[in-house]
Write a structure and sequence with these properties.
This protein is α/β, with parallel strands linked by helices and 336 residues long. Helix content is 43%, strand content 13%. The chain has 14 helices and 13 strands. The protein has helices at 2-24, 30-38, 49-54, 66-69, 81-90, 109-120, 132-138, 167-176, 187-191, 220-225, 240-246, 264-275, 287-291, 307-333; strands at 27-28, 42-45, 56-57, 100-103, 127-129, 143-144, 164-165, 180-183, 199-203, 207-208, 256-259, 281-284, 299-304. Strands 7-12-11-8-10 form a five-stranded parallel sheet. Helix 12 (264-275) links the parallel strand 11 (256-259) and strand 12 (281-284). Helix 6 packs across helix 12. The chain is globular, with a radius of gyration of 23 Å.
Length: 336
């Protein structure tokens, strides 16, 4: 009897430990989303209104594309807390008191960014349904084209920038030395061959692991675009063991600063690292767009934008557009 009791207690302890681990996971699957819906979680569709209207998880709410709502069109930084409070409040999403599940398309980094915005303003980091609408449909789960509207909530957000670092903080860490910094942009961006800010290159000492390397097939989007594959299966996350091997050069107990161009792609890798047990993960919010603008911030593979060449390309493009417009005008005048 005593042995049976011990085995029962052990099983219960393991079950509780497993449940605790599941509760802490930021990345969830189809079954977990269905369970969350049953217990009353808010499901946030972070895609555009057009995509939402074409078909969404039954009961999910949408208030526009998260990438448009929570990024300044110039700096690409999140808005002040008061603005975010109105956005979430008008949508009926009480980020301070409700469990939130966010999804987009499979592997969509903007869904991770949207989930991180919940934590950024003081809520508990929303969970991300990595498989998104693609896995939901593949599982035969109910899809709706009818919009779900939640009652607005009065929301006061007193926190801002939770889990994020700003440019001065990152520069200080770089100059001090010993910082663990992860660049999740493409290899060409990292090498300064693809310049998307005032200068190209990367933060001095940063390690390069593109965020697509989290997927089973990092080339999946390109293959999908060229019709080499017919679905997004390759954008599923690698196994936990494969992901641990991918980040084996990093110390899980050390602060890890993750950045990309503007903080979106970094959001996906940050969630992956936290699920792997990294205890102190920060997203550098302005990312390379902000860092590149501080010209004395230490960088490697540094290259500056060639403004003359850029103006030449723009001029050539304008010439082609003008020529095309002229051809279209001629076609309209041609009798049929």
């Amino acid at each position: 009897m005593f042995g049976i009791l011990i085995r029962a207690l052990t099983a219960a302890t393991l079950a509780l430990a497993g449940a605790g681990a599941l509760a802490q996971s930021l990345i969830v699957d189809t079954a977990a989303v269905a369970q969350a819906i049953e217990r009353g979680a808010v499901v946030w569709d972070s895609r555009s209104a057009k995509e939402y209207a074409a078909g969404h998880i039954d009961g999910a709410v949408n208030f526009g594309a998260a990438g448009d709502l929570f990024r300044d069109p110039v700096r690409e930084d999140p808005p002040p807390a008061a603005v975010a409070a109105k956005l979430f409040g008008d949508a009926g999403i009480d980020i301070l008191n409700r469990e939130v599940i966010v999804y987009g398309g499979k592997g969509d980094a903007l869904a991770y960014f949207a989930a991180r915005m919940v934590e950024y303003y003081g809520g508990r980091h929303a969970k991300v349904y990595h498989g998104g609408i693609d896995d939901w449909k593949a599982a035969g789960k109910p899809v709706s084209t009818q919009a779900t509207k939640l009652p607005p909530v009065a929301l006061t957000l007193e926190s801002e920038r939770v889990g994020a670092l700003w440019t001065d903080e990152v520069i200080e860490r770089v100059r001090r030395g010993g910082a663990q910094i992860l660049d999740v942009r493409t290899p060409k961006e990292y090498a300064g061959q693809d310049v998307r800010a005032i200068r190209g290159g990367h933060i001095a000492g940063a390690l390069s692991i593109p965020y697509e390397d989290n997927w089973r097939d990092p080339a999946a989007p390109a293959k999908l675009a060229s019709k080499e594959v017919a679905n997004k299966d390759g954008m599923a996350l690698k196994s936990a063991d494969e992901l641990k091997a991918l980040y084996a050069k990093l110390d899980p107990a050390k602060e890890t600063v993750v950045y990309c161009q503007s903080g979106v792609r970094a959001s996906e890798t940050a969630a992956v690292l936290r699920d792997l047990g990294f205890s102190n993960v920060k997203v550098y919010e302005p990312s390379w767009l902000g860092y590149a603008g501080v010209l004395n911030a230490p960088a490697e593979n540094e290259v500056f934008v060639n403004v003359g060449a850029l103006n030449g390309q723009i001029s050539a493009l304008r010439g082609r557009v003008t020529a095309l417009e002229a051809e279209l005008a001629k076609l309209k005048q041609t009798p049929r």
